[in-house]
Write a structure and sequence with these properties.
With 782 residues, the protein is mainly beta. It contains four helices and 73 strands. It has a 20-stranded mixed sheet that branches. Strand 65 and strand 66 form a beta hairpin. It is elongated, with a radius of gyration of 51 Å.
């Protein structure tokens, strides 16, 4: 057997630690170094002899074979390798022979033994046959409390103890008189005996060992030791809190455990499944066969920094298990468990099944917040699982990169904002979303208010409610009509196939809605209706564009910009005359906020490429009621000017039909101007001296002809029956003028193409006294 030096810190004669001193352990009465050891775990490991002390004069415990040794103590002189002798003394004890011939029976016999014998052999505990023999040594100075097993008092003296001598690693439970199902009263003492005892620091067997049997002892037993359980040892009512346990394979559970330093725990050891998960082992191995007496987990608990291995065990209950910083092996977890994850790099490879239910517990089984874990698509075998996870309720992630993978379903409840780079079988959207680099086989935009934006996508749209829809550099098959009331439809650099459905009725009742904006697009078949439209640099193959009026501030308006487009096939650009207009109203009552039809190509198979029912059929009625080009007064002699209507540079089968049959000659090369003057008083339209003669078509102003004399300023009625040419002239220093009322409907002003295409001018006067005239050209050229 081995015992240890009685000291592990040395001091000099003045009481100071012997810093950096040297200790040599010698065989008694010789200069021969003894074999010495340190204790690492439960094993003795050879130690260098002599050994050097630390700055506090200490060393780890030093063990030697039982006997007497001499200890030489030296002081460090400050020079490497130089020491001076401080003291030499003896330590240890000499047992009286390998085996004493004195044999006693049981603990009662030991207590009655003559202490002068030094050592005795004890057979049995209560009787001669209830446990094996062992050796005890008498320590006359030991005062440690007896524990009815390894430390026994004498009936003949108050001081001193009989101390167990054993080279064994295990302490059998019978050495403490513990018999399963019989006397189990000494279990606590058995688990808490000291590791060393007495003046010689005699080591006791480090591992308590329970022999086979069904133990009835109840409660929680705590020890700092490792515990060993033979096969067949079973505790139906006990829980052990210990450093670790060694459990032999058994056909039944052993007990419940709480470990402080267990490398691996097996589920087959445990009485309850909840105790297995909360045992504290570094690795939790799930056995194929388990023996749980209780399979329910109804508490909330956390498993921290554990490795989880084996295949998922089955258990019941509604408790939540949190895995924090754990390392599950592949296929070691089950989606049937109630799980929460924190501080982990999540992967679907952990799970042996596929019953995914991500969300906040208890409404969902698997709670994995993106803010608490690392969730990378590269860690997933199934992108569908990745999508379900990162888009589930407890997550904060709103941007999802599929990294080129495919998913089958992305549902509308997923709160992502940006989804990119992959293929989706079915994508349901009911909230704002941006799509980038996606191929979607079935896109369902199921919202009247959300904003959907797609960049570089290939989309098959099978449902498109309203919402703001924007496509950039995408290929879109529109299989469901888009109605973007109150919102907008936008596309740029995209191909949109409208064969199965069209963009229709985007105007909102009582307002312009979001309108339609198309730039650099290719549109195939179908129709596009819009209340406010911008179509620029597009190719419209068999796709008709129809501009519809909208109501704003109790008046009907028209607004559209159509520039540099190519209309090909059975299609046209139309301004609809009646869609959404109030009963009895006419498109001629609309205010044109802006209408540009410029530089388009109409290679169409319809009779005309443009249909606009604005004008009457003859030159005398060629005006639009209320066409607007706002002029705002900015000073005494200045103004800003806007042009409401452009039609020029178009080629192909245009100009269009106006009204029912007549056409407006040479309209394709003529710019049209309209204006609405709404100053604070009357103004004059005049020609400046020297201005070439131009024809300007204006309303006739004569008393009784749908007008009235109002203090020298003519107020024109809501309708003018006829339109007559008015030529502004300049004779000498006089200027012909046309007085403009507070508000009037101004006709289209068309430059006579037979005359030089100069601008005509507007003369602004502060009053009618011809004082302080200013000449301002109409913006743009004829």
């Amino acid at each position: 057997m081995k015992i240890s030096l009685s000291e592990n810190q040395w001091i000099d004669s003045s009481g100071r630690p012997l810093a950096a001193g040297r200790v040599t352990v010698l065989l008694h009465d010789s200069d021969t170094p003894a074999d010495i050891f340190t204790l690492e775990g439960n094993a003795f490991v050879a130690k260098q002899n002599p050994f050097v002390l630390d700055d506090g004069g200490r060393s780890e415990s030093t063990w030697f074979d039982a006997g007497i040794v001499d200890v030489r103590l030296e002081r460090y002189n400050g020079v490497p390798g130089s020491y001076s002798l401080v003291d030499t003394y003896s330590d240890g004890f000499a047992p009286s022979g390998a085996r004493n011939d004195t044999v006693v029976y049981g603990m009662a016999g030991l207590a009655d033994a003559d202490t002068a014998l030094g050592t005795v052999t004890v057979v049995g505990y209560n009787s001669a046959h209830d446990c094996g023999e062992r050796t005890f040594v008498w320590d006359d100075s030991c005062t440690v409390a007896p524990d009815v097993g390894a430390i026994v008092s004498s009936n003949w003296t108050v001081t001193g103890r009989w101390i167990l001598l054993s080279e064994s690693r295990e302490m059998p439970s019978t050495w403490y008189g513990i018999a399963a199902g019989e006397d189990e009263s000494n279990v606590s003492a058995f688990l808490t005996y000291p590791s060393r005892v007495g003046q010689w620091n005699i080591p006791l067997p480090p591992v308590p060992r329970f022999l086979p049997g069904n133990y009835s002892v109840a409660g929680t037993f705590s020890t700092q030791k490792d515990i060993m359980f033979d096969s067949g040892a079973k505790f139906a009512n006990a829980t052990f809190q210990c450093r670790s346990a060694e459990v032999a394979p058994s056909s039944d559970y052993v007990a419940d455990f709480r470990f402080s330093a267990q490398d691996m725990a097996h589920s087959a050891w445990f009485r309850t499944v909840g105790s297995f998960w909360q045992c504290g082992a570094l690795e939790l191995f799930q056995d194929a066969t388990n023996h749980f007496a209780t399979t329910a987990v109804n508490s909330t608990f956390t498993v921290s920094k554990a490795r989880i291995s084996g295949r998922p065990i089955s258990y019941t209950g509604t408790g939540l298990m949190t895995l924090s910083g754990c390392l599950p092996e592949d296929r070691s977890l089950s989606t049937a468990w109630n799980l929460k994850f924190t501080g982990m790099t999540f992967t679907d490879r952990w799970f042996a099944d596929s019953g995914w239910d991500f969300g906040t517990w208890p409404s969902h089984r698997t709670w994995c917040a993106d803010s608490d874990n690392t969730i990378l698509l590269s860690n997933f075998d199934s992108a569908d699982v990745f999508e379900l996870l990162v888009a589930s309720a407890p997550n904060s992630r709103t941007s999802i990169d599929l990294e080129g993978r495919s998913v089958q379903l992305v549902d509308s409840w997923m709160p992502f904002i940006h989804l990119s780079n992959g293929t989706v079988g079915i994508l349901k959207l009911s909230h704002d979303a941006q799509l980038t680099g996606l191929t979607v086989n079935d896109l369902q935009m199921d919202s009247w208010t959300a904003t959907f934006t797609a960049y570089r996508c290939a989309l098959h749209v099978t449902k498109a409610l309203a919402g703001t829809i924007s496509f950039r550099d995408s290929n879109v098959w529109l299989g469901y009509p888009v109605s973007t009331a109150n919102t907008a439809f936008e596309a740029e650099g995209s191909t949109i196939d409208l064969t199965s459905a069209s963009i229709t009725r985007p105007n909102a009742p009582g307002g312009k809605g979001g309108g339609v904006t198309l730039r650099r697009c290719r549109l195939l078949n179908g129709t596009v209706d819009g209340a406010v439209m911008t179509v620029q640099d597009c190719v419209l193959s068999g796709t008709s564009v129809r501009l519809v009026p909208y109501m704003e501030s109790s008046a009907w308006h028209i607004a559209g910009v159509f520039e540099r487009n190519s209309f090909v096939g059975a299609c046209a650009l139309s301004i609809l005359s009646s869609l959404d207009l109030a009963s009895g109203a006419s498109v001629k009552d609309c205010i044109v906020d802006r209408l540009d039809i410029v530089d388009n190509s109409f290679v169409t198979t319809l009779p005309y490429g443009v249909y606009m029912p604005f004008w009457a059929e003859d030159m005398q009625h060629r005006f639009v009621s209320g066409c607007v080009a706002s002029m705002q007064w900015t000073g005494d002699f200045g103004a800003t000017w806007g042009i409401a209507f452009h039609y020029l540079g178009n080629t192909g089968n245009c100009p269009a039909v106006f009204g029912t049959s007549a056409t407006l000659g040479r309209l394709g090369s003529t710019r049209l101007f309209t204006a609405d003057f709404t100053p604070d008083g009357g103004w004059e339209l005049s020609a400046w001296s020297g201005t070439p003669l131009m024809q300007v078509f204006c309303l006739p102003v004569t008393p009784g002809d749908y007008g009235a004399d109002s203090g020298g300023t003519w107020v024109i009625g809501d309708r003018a029956k006829a339109v007559a040419p008015y030529r502004a002239t300049a004779v000498g220093g006089q200027h012909g003028f046309f007085a403009l009322p507070f508000h009037m409907y101004v006709p289209v002003c068309a430059i006579d193409p037979s005359q030089p295409n100069y601008m005509f001018s507007v003369l602004l006067m502060a009053d009618e006294t011809y004082n302080g005239m200013a000449v301002m050209p109409v913006a743009g050229e004829a």
